[in-house]
Amino acid sequence: MGVLSAAPRVVAVLGPTNTGKTHLAIERMLGHASGMIGFPLRLLARENYDRIVRLKGARSVALITGEEKIVPPNPQWFVCTVESMPLDRPVDFLAVDEIQLCGDPERGHVFTNRLLNARGRYETMFMGSDTIRPLLRRLVPEAEHISRPRFSVLRYTGYRKVTRLPRRSAVVAFAVSDVFALAELVRRQRGGTAVVVGALSPRARNAQVGMFEAGEVDYLVATDAIGMGLNMDLDHVAFAKLVKFDGQSPRRLSPAEIAQIAGRAGRHMADGTFGTTAEVEAIDEEIVEAVENHRFDPLHRIYWRNARLDFSGPEMLLRSLEARPPAPGLVPAREADDHQALRALARMPDIVARAGNPGRVRLLWEVCQIPDFRKVMSETHARLLAQIFRHLTGPEGRLPEAWVASQVSRLDRTEGDIDTLMARIAHIRTWTYVAHRAEWLADAPFWQERARAIEDRLSDALHERLTQRFVDRRSASLVRRLETPENLLASVAASGEVRVEGHYVGELKGFRFVPDAEANGEEAKTLVAAANRVLRGEIEARARRLAAAPDSEFALREDGTLVWGGGPVGRLAAGDNALTPRVEPVSGEFLEGAVLQMVRRRLQLFARTTIESGLAPLFRLHAAELAAPARGVAFQLAEALGAVPTRAVRPLLETLAPADRKALGRLGVRLGTEWIYVEPLLAPAAVALRALLWSVHQGAPLPAPLPPRGRFSVAPESPAEFYAAIGYAVLGTRVLRVDRVERLAAAARRLARQGSFAATAELAALAGVKQNELAGLLPALGYKALVDETGARFIARSPRRRARKQKPRPVHGPFAALRVLRAGR
Fold first, then answer.
1. Do residues 699 and 693 make contact, with C-beta atoms less than 8 angstroms apart?
2. Global pTM?
3. H or E stretch covering 642
4. Do 196 and 209 meet the contact criterion of CB atoms below 8 Å apart?
């Protein structure tokens, strides 16, 4: 039952954000038998419609926006956007929210029209900022004024880097590109953020805000879309920009606009803070004081557009739209989208011809009010409106279903990036609006449902793309948990996979934590920080298991890495000599003190055991009971890793007794004319180990460039010293294994005794080389090439080699071998 009074009551409830104005208005409306309330955003209208439905039931409440109409048979209360309020329907109570938007250059004329002309039978309420109070007193003198103090305190905290913003913060910019760039930064630094821009559909925006409200992310990056009544659990608002483009040119935000956005921080009795970030260093003290104390310059003008339109013809309609304001404080509205659309269509002769009576002109105006959600307001939108008007003024008087289907169907695609999906959503919202003009379509409910379903699918896809791009749920969760002193839940699988709080963060390879390869920058740092909190105990236990592990659980790789448990735990480093390298544990940040030393000792033991096993013939030779000359040869072989040129130890060889030669032979030593070598060490595994030890000792790159298995001759790629250490000799342009050098030298000697000889395939086979390689090998053995009258090449021993007396050249320092001889036993 309505509230009776002698005269309709008009109330202005004015004050800052978070004063309960909207709650009061809904409470008053539900106290009347009928009512209507207009909100500035479709999202707010839907939010409050749902709230009232929960209180009063769906049969009692209608929702009317440009794109959505839910109207039961006899609703008592109407929840609308301000533009969609059905003012021809009388109600007991009428309210308009954010009435200060009368001063908005783009939409202000709509709010001004409601301020001047929209009334409830018994009560009318305008809610908004104090800035409109003086003009409202002048234009609506009968209004009562009620001031509402803010429930909580809003305080300025200055500048903070984006990476230092507190949890539950919103970062505000105005261009979509700026919002996306900031969102990328927050994702990298803090794990993720929700994103709210005006181009999002209500469903996508709700999904993003819902993510923030549910605590899945702790940050929100948004345009000023959050400043209009969106109720969120925000503690801090940080301005990354204080300049916005108002449709014509960039301008600075007014103090009242800053307060409107900053006021989203702190809800009900919880205090909030605001400040700056990114490129905005500080807000002027005067503005800060105004915002904190809610004192702003009043509006001196509001925008007005004539609502008494002349529909006698398109030109008369345009002229009536351009009528001058009737009262001081009212200024002509900027030419709105519908006005621009009408001007564009009025230049089309066939459109003017079709608008030949007031009914057709009214229809033309209704078509021009179809929103341009794509914000192109160009020939594209004008052509669409013109086509709609042509169909509506055609023989059937409705939009052809086949044409509507073709327009709508091409938007029913969810592939594409964020920009593509936002463009499709904007376009389908236009068709959602059209579908709610029931008289324009044969089956309006079908097209309403079809457009709504497409918008929902596109919105869900957009939410998914935004989440994929701007939210790393793993990092967001870990950052939040790392800020608490509580223990983190962690597990390490047998494979080394590490999970913290259920999230995969990387692998434990030996004692070193390797973050997930897909993480980089700050995200990787977050994973390492989480690992640091949980892995220390696991790694100490792993170190004890390593210390007790048998040698069979370890491996030595060709790059000098020691592996245990599937991961690297140590690395060989140069020691006193090639046979005794040091081992440095690969410990990461977790091994230290006595535990580190325990690991080092076990790895050193494994390395020594592996070397002694892999080069066992060399160590047996070194430990054998031999006479002094033979012991000198053994020493030289041990120092050279198993092979020395014969000329380097010739003085020692000349002193060997037959028994010494036999003893050395039993130990695998071959005494050749060119090389002395330990024959078992020519096996591939031993060669690889020798190459590794020489490279570690010399600081050469690893893995070492070994000759391919089964190849006795290769082109040289490394220093001659390297090849000597692994049992190969550099002969001219080739490298030949020392046992093959001996074979080749022996065969050449036999042939040379008979005179000159040819480089035959048989000779090449003895050496294990190709026939054409002999021409490069034999000269290095002291032979030279001759050519007879037939042109065939022959090889003969060089007289110079036979006459030259060999001079001993010790490998390891002057007189090293002689010192061994003198030492004796």
1. no
2. 0.65
3. none
4. yes
